[in-house]
Write a structure and sequence with these properties.
13 helices, elongated
């Protein structure tokens, strides 16, 4: 029987015995220079204009949501690492604040990474590539399985896997997604193509501002050309070329067989359940 899904609170509260102290959850104002950001936080890009807007709000209303920090055990003295709220901290600096409201948590590295990721997942403005890199960090560096991560952040494991697959795209396409020139859905459509075809279509989609539907049409053109071709005039080279195009689109081995009656049999070969699910998604089968 499958185990009960654990909530984010349960994951965060599964600390080692003895880790809880009277300071855990303590609210206090801290000097702004005592706070330092995490190096591997999920959000890697910040819009300067957005920071200025946040700073203006902080000048008018102060920081409404405290910054979550954890104490650092080092030789530098009383310093704290930002777990969640780095943008608020940076905006507070722009606003000229000398101290900021915080909540002090006693967290190990593993739960710090998960806590930081959870806050960013809850914010819709985190770009998909930053989100994917945040997932990857928690999975690879902190020992979470994709299933554990999905449970902890309240997502379906298939959703987590789909986000992580964006990191298989070339860096140039990931940058287009980070800048907002392409969406995550554009990226998912490109995954089944060859690298050269991915880059070619991604650049065209960004430059010409193609919708997801238009990208689907562009990807489908080779298949439509194969359907229009007269079977009686098809050569072995034609078949090999069309099979390659189909395989690039679907990310799987595809075999075509032309009959004398004018029909074409298409055989799609999936070597694993994950590959089969990916083919279903690219064909739009729900």
């Amino acid at each position: 029987m499958a185990g009960k899904r654990r909530s984010m609170a349960e994951f965060l509260d599964l600390a080692e015995p003895g880790n809880f102290t009277v300071t855990d959850g303590l609210k206090r104002d801290l000097p702004i220079e005592k706070l330092i950001p995490r190096q591997n936080q999920p959000r890697r890009t910040t819009d300067p204009t957005e920071l200025e807007q946040m700073a203006a709000t902080i000048r008018a209303l102060g920081i409404i949501q405290p910054i979550v920090v954890r104490p650092l055990d080092d030789q530098s003295g009383d310093r704290y690492q930002i777990v969640a709220g780095e943008r608020r901290w940076r905006a507070a600096q722009l606003a000229g604040m000398s101290a900021v409201p915080t909540i002090v948590r006693i967290l190990d590295e593993r739960r710090t990474a998960l806590y930081s990721l959870a806050e960013n997942v809850a914010r819709s403005d985190l770009n998909p590539v930053d989100l994917a890199k945040g997932y990857q960090s928690v999975v690879e560096e902190h020992g979470f399985s994709q299933t554990e991560l999905a449970e902890a952040i309240g997502q379906n494991v298939k959703t987590v896997n789909r986000v992580l697959r964006l990191l298989k795209l070339p860096d140039s396409i990931q940058e287009l997604i980070e800048r907002g020139a392409l969406t995550a859905k554009h990226g998912e459509l490109l995954l089944g193509l060859s690298k050269a075809r991915q880059i070619e279509l991604a650049q065209s989609a960004a430059e010409q501002q193609w919708s997801v539907r238009e990208l689907e049409r562009q990807i489908a053109k080779p298949a439509e050309a194969a359907q229009r071709k007269s079977p009686g005039n098809v050569t072995d080279d034609d078949i090999a070329r069309e099979q390659t195009l189909w395989s690039e689109q679907l990310g799987a081995d595809v075999k075509l067989r032309y009959s004398k009656t004018g029909t074409v049999r298409i055989t799609i070969i999936a070597t694993s359940l994950d590959e089969y699910q990916g083919i279903r998604e690219r064909l739009g089968v729900s």
